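Quick illustration, no need to memorize.
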Amino acid sequence: MKNKSWYEDINLKISNLIDKLGSSNVRKYRVELLDRLSKRTEEFSIINCNECKKHKQLIEGMIQYLEGNNEMKRKMYLNSFNKLIGHMNSKHDLHVEGTKQALWMSMGMSLGSGLGIIFGIVYDNFENIAVGLPIGTGFGMFIGILIGQQQEVKLKEEGKII
């Protein structure tokens, strides 16, 4: 009989959790992302990332929490999630899908809002601010989403999405 790897064992537990929890709790607790984080943690612990080796225990505790066998609170669970994502981002340059798009969308909206206000001020009529602000915000959001999607595609091609 072949020995199971740590990830195969975790993946089996997560698959059982997905069936047990139901779709709303799977989304709420980001169980599918936890599975992808587990896989990446295994990959990097093999190539001697000591923090990833420590994070394996954290992931096991998170799974025990979801199974109901751990006294961890939901806030601790989410903090653990953020810790894992932060490590993957800072040490291994991996990103959660959608973060670049959200970042660029908000930056585009901010810049577009500013340009809309400037448009209203330049034309010396404060009524134009009411027109320029939503147009600038919408245009900025559109441009931000396009840039963010391009960045996401690039990250996917490079294998840098968790």
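The first helix runs from residue 6 to 21.
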